[in-house]
Amino acid sequence: MKHGRLRFLLGALVPALVLHVLFVLSPYAQAFYLSLTDWTGVAGEAHFVGAGNYARLGGDSLFLDAVRNNAVMLVVIPLATIALGLFLASMLHLGGRDGRRGIAGSRVYQIVYFFPQLLSLVVIAVLWQFIYNPNNGLLNGALRAARLGSLARSWLGEPDLALPSVMAVLVWSSVGFYMVLFSAAIDSIPKELYEAALLDGASNWATFRKVTLPLVRDTVQVAFVYLGIGALDGFAVVQVMTVGPGGPDGATEVIGLSLYRNAFTFGRFGYASAMGVALFFATLTLAVLALRAGRNERVELA
Predict the structure, then answer these.
(1) pLDDT per residue over 146-160, tens digit each?
(2) Taking every annotated instance into account, which residue ranges of this chain make up the domain ABC transmembrane type-1 (predicted)?
């Protein structure tokens, strides 16, 4: 019986492990090795350069601009998306007399807010590129129609506005999904807690702060990790929306874009691999710190 169970487990796990090693771990290992070489991406011998590629990263001004922009995105995008998602989910679910029923038509609003998730990031970037068009774009057109033409700008052409414009698109494209995620988390909270808060005379804000937010903390933590990983990327939207690419004066340069340009434009695959490895460890560090912080908070609450 035990031998039959062991054969079953080996038969189920070994093929999956082999595929995982072949298609997941093997590319990682190759990337780590290539980051230590000067490989140009074409057939030929790759010369081992050790940590030389990593030493070059510290002196690459464009890469440092990309790190700075990704750091700004890492702060702004998760905070803005989570705040808006929680606000919308709360408004849709916590507006009734019992503190739980929500406003009329909340299901319709959820569908409307979720709609951007049906579009790929490339399609979203193209749509917003037209919206931001300085001559006949929807945004400037609306400002001029409202007699606020003085506020019309070249949203993707000015260094001070290019990155905020891109971040606004990333937040817009993500907030609907996290609103639905937070809505599901709120639905799982026992109704009795809201009834008790209502009997105690708690306001909507107090109910959200004392009941809802602590009980959706784990969901918020997961959302932060995923949004942080997305903020460390941003390649697709920047590549499609901004000119250059990388925007005016590198205002929207991101690590993924620098990696792509060095690999497929300049043929520096070894150097690009070093960027990829640096991005990998930055993402891994973010996830570990966020998960550890969440675990420490749970221990303190217990």
Answers:
(1) 998 888 999 998 999
(2) 67-290
